[in-house]
Amino acid sequence: MYFIGGNNYELVQDNKSGWNFEVFRERYSEVLERYDYIVGDWGYNQLRLRGFFKDNNSKGSKEFFISSIQDYLNEYCNFGCAYFVIEKTNDKKILEPTVSVAE
């Protein structure tokens, strides 16, 4: 689990070692706090972040539901890029990262 922006997140998918907590922390913005999931993808050595809602969340539209993640990856990301998906947890306890991050 990882704590940032007042929320705890759990890494649910790490494709091609795309997860890097230190870079994520630098790129994180308060705008992402409203989303249930955050997807980070790498292109040209830069990390892009985009938020997604759970499919049953009334705040979102179809393009922002987590079930459309494959469409997002296919249409907006570099082919075969490294990426990760983290999910906001309901646990409000402050936790430090439990996984060391390799550079």
Keywords for this structure?
103 residues; 2 helices; alpha+beta; 5-stranded antiparallel beta sheet; single chain
What can you see in these coordinates?
With 103 residues, the chain is of the alpha+beta class. The chain has helices at residues 21-27, 69-76, and strands at residues 2-4, 7-15, 37-43, 46-52, 83-88. The protein has a five-stranded antiparallel sheet with strand order 1-2-5-3-4, covered by helices on one side. 17% of the residues are buried. Residues 94-103 have low confidence and may be disordered.
Q: What is the element layout, followed by pairings?
A:
Blueprint: E1 2-4, E2 7-15, H1 21-27, E3 37-43, E4 46-52, H2 69-76, E5 83-88
Task: Provide a concise account of the structure shown.
Helix content is 15%, strand content 31%.
Sketch the major β-sheet: 5 strands, antiparallel
Total E-strand runs: 5
Order of neighbouring strands in the sheet with most strands: 1-2-5-3-4
The best one-word shape is globular
Distance between the termini: 19 Å
